[in-house]
Design a protein that fits this description.
The protein is mainly α. The chain has helices spanning 2-12, 14-34.
Length: 37
């Protein structure tokens, strides 16, 4: 039930998800640089 709902939301918010993934990648890179990794 929940996964079905999530799939529909993800499909509708495709551009938003893409931007969020890009943001997450940026945060991960920033954390790696900031922590000296």
């Amino acid at each position: 039930m929940t996964s079905s709902s999530w799939s529909t939301t993800s499909r509708q918010a495709s551009p938003t998800s893409d931007a969020w993934l890009r943001h997450q990648t940026g945060v991960r890179i920033w954390k790696a640089i900031f922590s000296g990794g």
